[in-house]
Amino acid sequence: MRSSINGEQKDVESRKVQKLGSSSLFITLPKKWINKWNIKPGDKVIMELESSGSLRLTAEKVKVSPAKKSIRVDVDSTKQQLHRTISCLYSLGYDEIVLESKKSFGQKEFEEVMSSVKQMVGMEVTEIGDSLIRIDCLLDSEKVGVESLLRRMLNIVAKQIDDLSSFVVQEKKRTTEKGTLEELKRVHYMLSRRIIGKREDKENGFTLGYLALLAAQTLMTVTHYVEKLEELLSEVELSEDESHIVRGLLQKVNDVLDEVVMSLIFPSYKRINNGFTMIVQSREELKELKNSRPEVMSLHYVLDSMLDLLEKAMENSSCGVFIEGSQ
């Protein structure tokens, strides 16, 4: 029997459950499925229990050797920046990207492609012609954990904030390391590819992945706020009390970011409540800075915007505790 779900035709068969021995039950596998995947006695079959009551069977050899995902792009018709095109296709999980044009690629286009490829882990240009550029991605996304990537991003941003806090005390000129921000971008691209480009996803896994992407975007945005704070702090001389307030707020920002990420990895009502409590405390401390001097109002505005961002991020991450199987 064939059925159609969302326009996709599927084979549907029924089997009687039979008894084997005193306590075991078994069913026979569909012949069409066995022939398609060349299943032999002794082969392993992965069984996944769905929350809907379905039981998904996947031949292990399919899991181990996923099909190569390729795409050819007519850059003349897309009329998009090459960097934007490459980054999108990388995030969507493509293993081979072929850029084609009716015209010859110029030096500018070659440099844009090479610059983009350097920002994405596992990518390399494998073929260059007058009107064709082939890019291959050798990164196995399945071997890269979402949790480890989120933690790497968190550590990069935490160090950036710690450095800024030290700058408030030492009052010496400091500039953000370009390499640090580039590394953050590379990890963010890897995380996007791992989640968006994953070939198979259960409903709960997709939801957690989406929340992880939101958390990653929060980390990316925080770095821009930190850069703005660096710029403002280099122009304003803070009093001892003001420095104490700013350093305390920066520490709380780091602590809340930790709860945003870790409450996704290890869902916990305690973490969520702790995150929101620190945001409330930070807003109270920020009032003291607002009542300080007109010169520090710009600092107040940026820090207030950061807290708004963190509050929304905490709300997003708090949804993770309600996802079945996450606790």
Automatic annotation (TrEMBL):
The lineage of its organism: Archaea, Thermoproteota, Thermoprotei, Sulfolobales, Sulfolobaceae. This is AbrB family transcriptional regulator. It comes from the Archaea. It comes from Sulfodiicoccus acidiphilus. Residues 19-65 form the SpoVT-AbrB domain. GO terms for molecular function: DNA binding. It holds the Pfam family Mnd1.
